[in-house]
Amino acid sequence: MKLAVLVVAIGLAGSARADETQLSGFVTRGSGELTGRVTGDDGKPLPRVKVHVVSKAGDQTVTADNDGRYRVMLKGLDSFVYVDHTAHVSGQMAEGEGDVVEIHETVPPAVMPKPKPSYAIIPDYSDKAMDDDVWLRAWLVLDISDQGTVTRMKLVNAPGHELDAIAVREGFKLKFEPARDRANQAIRALIVWSFEWPSYWWMLGNHYRIDRFPVQANGVACRKSGPPSDHYRDCSKPDLARAVIQPWTERPTQRR
Q1: Is residue 3 over pLDDT 80?
Q2: For the whole model, what pTM was predicted?
Q3: Tens digits of per-residue pLDDT, 7-42?
Q4: Fewest CB within 10 angstroms: 1, 156, 240, 241, which?
Q5: C-alpha distances in angstroms, 181 versus 11, 37, 92, 176?
Q6: Backbone angles phi, psi at 201, to 5 degrees
């Protein structure tokens, strides 16, 4: 069985908060022991970083050693392997028996996809989202081609309130500078992307443009639990377990 990999990183719609960290990792399928290393942008190992593995079998967390190295057992299911840290995580798995052993390895791209232009938009509000006047967020996994086009996606955290179709539609409109490998060649990659809708009447009451994410929204307190509210921001994180099991939504074919 081969180790299939795609790289994942966080992309943020709107203004990034100062406390946001990058999520870096890969998607893999295989059985056996996966080993790898966590490094910084300078290529130096990062010690004691927690490495998360999410699959249908459940969540695992292991801690890299002082040299940034980690090891974890995989069970043959599709898994997200990632670090909730501004870092790069690589991995390799040895599979086979006797004299036939295959080594499958992944190394994150040197450059991750970048949106063009830098997006700080708020997608359209649905009538229900306006009427309910609550703070909402969508998380999507986007498959970015080597041309910078969104070819398919998964809506892993649905905002509801009749915004799901709007999030998918706007996700396919995004354009990116493609990821690049260490030879500076454009390559395919995945990113996790967020759209956020501040409560509609909060936007109007503060005289903000309804289609642009205001910097002042970063100062709104996060909702800790319970139903959506107009008083608290939705600071939820992407549900990567759902991303593993959900089917892809393919890019709509253009009509001539």
Answers
A1: no
A2: 0.79
A3: 555 444 433 343 444 567 777 777 778 888 998 878
A4: 1
A5: 18, 18, 18, 15
A6: -80, -20
Torsion, CA 49, CA 188, CA 3, CA 11, rounded to 10: 30
Distance CA 66, CA 60 (A): 20
**Chain mean position to CA 158:** 14
What is the model's pLDDT at position 79? 80
Q: How far is CA 250 from CA 142, 146, 173, 210, 233, in A?
A: 10, 16, 13, 29, 30
Q: How confident is the model at residue 195 (pLDDT cuts 50, 70, 90)?
A: very high
User: Scanning the structure block, which residue is given the tokens 């642009």?
Assistant: 212
Nearest-Å Rg of the Cα atoms of the chain is: 19
- Kindly tell me the burial class for residue 225, based on how many C-beta atoms sit within 10 Å of its own C-beta (0-12, 13-18, 19 or more): exposed
